[in-house]
Amino acid sequence: MYQALYRKWRPQTFSDVSGQETVTTALKNELKTGRLSHAYLFTGCRGTGKTTCAKILAKAVNCLHPVDGDPCNECEICRGIDSGAILDVTEIDAASNNGVDSIRDLRDEVAYTPVSGKYRVYIIDEVHMLSAGAFNALLKTLEEPPAHVIFVLATTEVHKLPATILSRCQRFDFGRIRPEEIAARIHYVAAQEGLTVTDEAALLLARLADGALRDALSLLDQCASVAKEIDRDTVASVTGMAGQETLAALTDCVARQDAPAALAAVDSLYRSAKDMERLCAEWVGYLRNLMVLHSMSDPGELVIASPEELTRMRQQATGLGLPTILHMMEVLQGALDRLRGGVSRRVEMEMAVIRLCDPRLDDSTAALLHRLDNLEVAVKAGVPAASAAPVAPAIAPAAEPEPIPAAQAPVAPDYEPIPAPTAEPVIPAPVATPPEGEVPFAPWAQVLDKLAGSNPPLRAFLQETTALQNGESLILCIDSPLLVEVLKEGGNKQSLVDAIQAVTGRTFAMKLRRAQKVAKAEVDPLSQLLTAGRDAGIEVNEK
Predict the structure, then answer these.
(1) Rounded to two decimals, what is the model's pTM?
(2) What letter would DSSP give residue 388?
(3) Could you give the angle at the alpha carbon of 308 between the alpha carbons of 303 and 311, nearest 5°?
C-alpha cells in the first residue's frame, strides 16, 4: 500500500532531523553519557519533529548497539519498535484519551518491568488536552516513576499545561524550520522519489509550510500526483494560490486607485475557484514582504523570494510608501477576520478592494496617513494640487432682514414664524481675516429669524441666548441646563448649523458657555396700584 511521503521519509536518527540541531545535540549527549531524565517535554509548532524525536529517543534508550547516541536501526529491538512488535514503547493520543481513568490505567501499568528492552517509554502526544483530573492523577507518577520508565510529553500549546507538570519535566523547545532547510529536504526526498522540483517551487513549498516540514512534504506529495516535474506554476495550481504576479497586479490597481480593474481581477480569481480567504491571507503576506523591504536595506532571510522578485517588490514598496502599505494590511486583516464568519466571501473581498482603492471611504488613522503620504509624494514630484471646486455662495432668501443688534431683535410668539419684509437678498461679504478676541455675533438675530421658519421650538429656546464670535468659533452663552439637552436631541444642533450657514455662508465650530442668569425683579401688583394712585394725585392710606 502507498505510504505518504512524510511517513515514508520520517527521520530514523537524530542526525537526520532537520532544523533542530540544538535539541538533537542535547539528546545525543544525554544518551552517550547516560544522564537520562525520567520525563521530557517537547514543545513547538506542528510538523517540526517532536513526535519523531520522541520515537528516536525511545529506540535509542533501548538499542542494543547505539552509534554515537543514535539508534542503530538494525538490532531486533529497533526493528521491533519500528514494526510495533515490541510493546515496551507506548504512544498515547491525549486528545482521545484525556480522561482520568486512562491515566489511572497507565499509572497501574508502569509498575511492570519491560519485556524486551531496558526501558518502558510512554509518549503522550497533545498532552495539553488532558483534563484537570488526569493531570492530577499523573503528577505523582511523573515525579517519581519507576527506574525503568521514561515519559515523553509532546504538545503544541505548552501554556495550557499546569506549572506542576512543567516543573517535573526536562523541556525542549522545537523552533520553526528555516525555509532553506525545508527546501533542501524537499530536494532530497524528490530525488529519492524520482521527481524534479525547481528551486522556485521548493522555496514556495517551504514558504507555504510556514516552518513545518511535515506540511511541506504533504504538499510535495500532492504536487507529485499531478506531475513528475514540479515548478512554481504546478505548486500554485495545486494549492490554489493566486501567485506573485496576480498579487503584484492587485497591489498596482490599489496604487492607481483603479477599482474596476481590481474588481475584475478578483472576479477572475473567484471564477477560477480561488478561495477568497486564502487570497486575502496571501495578499497580506505579500504586503508584509513589501513592508519589510521598505524598512530594511538587506532583509536577508526575512523575505523568501528570487532576486528578480525582490527587485520588483522593492520598487513597488518604494512607490507605495510605508503608510499606504500599512493601511492596506490593516484593511485586509479586518477583511480576513470577517471572511471567516461572513455570509458571502466574494462580497466581503470586493468591499475590501473598494475601500483600498478609495481611502476616503475609510476614516481610520492608517487611511488618513495613506492620504497624507500621497499628498507628500505629489508635492515632491511637483504635481500641483487640484484646486477645489468653487463653492457657490449661499444666497439668503428674500425674507432675510438687514442685520440688527441683538437687543432690538423682534420677539415673536412661541412656535410662530416671524413674517419677514420683502427686501433684496443680502449676501454677506467674505471675511478675509477672522476677528481677534471675542466679539458679539452680529447676525445672531437673523439666525433666530431663520430658525423661526425651520425649527420654531428651538428658536423659542434660544430667544434669550446671546452669541459671541471668536475667529472661526461661535460661542453660545446659555444659562439653562435644559438648553444643553435640547441641543443634543434629534437634529436641533444641525438645524442651528444650517441656519447659521444660510445667513453667513460660513460654518463655525460650536461651543457652549454657562452664563450667569440675571434675576428679574418681581413686581408687586399692590405696590404698582399705590404708585399709580400717587401719580394721579389720590391720597392713599398705606395702612
Answers:
(1) 0.60
(2) P
(3) 70
Q: What pLDDT shows up at residue 170?
A: 92
**472 CB-side CA count, 13 A:** 6
CA–CA gap between residue 263 and residue 250 (Å, rounded): 9
Which distant-in-sequence residues (6+ apart) come within 8 Å of 87 by Cβ?
115
pLDDT tens-digit readout, 49-82: 999 999 999 999 999 998 888 999 899 999 998 8
Region at 496 (left for phi over 0; alpha for psi -120 to 50; beta for the rest): alpha
SS (H, E, C) 34-75: CCCCCEEEEEECCCCCHHHHHHHHHHHHHCCCCECCECCCCC
- Integer Cα distance of 290 and 203 in angstroms: 18
Q: What pLDDT was estimated at residue 536?
A: 59
SS3 percent helix, strand, coil of the chain, rounded to 5, is 50, 10, 40
Can you tell me whether residue 128 is helix, strand or coil? helix
Distances (CA, A) of 300 to 247, 289, 309: 22, 12, 14
Q: Classify residue 507 by its DSSP letter.
A: -
| Per-residue pLDDT reduced to its tens digit, 477-493 | 877 777 777 777 667 77
Kindly give, in sequence order, each residue whose CB lies less than 8 Å from that of residue 449, ignoring residues fewer than 6 positions away.
Answer: 399, 400, 401, 409, 410, 418, 420
3-class secondary-structure state, position 169: coil
User: Is 402 strand, coil or helix?
Assistant: coil
- Sequence-distant (≥ 6) Cβ neighbours of residue 118 within 8 angstroms: 61, 62, 148
pLDDT score, position 137: 87
Number of neighbours of residue 50 by Cβ within 10 angstroms: 25
What ranges in 321-455 are assigned the alpha helix state H?
322-339, 345-357, 365-380, 444-454
469 phi, psi to nearest 5 deg: -115, 130
Identity of the residue numbered 518: V
Q: Check: CB of residue 346 under 8 Å from CB of residue 270.
A: yes
Residues 6 or more apart whose Cβ sits within 8 Å of residue 205: 182, 183, 186, 197, 216, 219, 220, 223, 235
Q: Which residues of the chain have pLDDT under 50?
A: 385-435, 518-522
SS3 assignment, position 114: coil
**Which pLDDT score, from 0 to 100, does residue 40 have?**
94
CB 469 within 8 A of CB 441: yes
d(C-alpha 123, C-alpha 152), whole Å: 5
- Category of 241 on φ-ψ map: left (φ > 0), alpha (ψ -120 to 50) or beta: beta
Element (H, E) at 254: helix 244-256
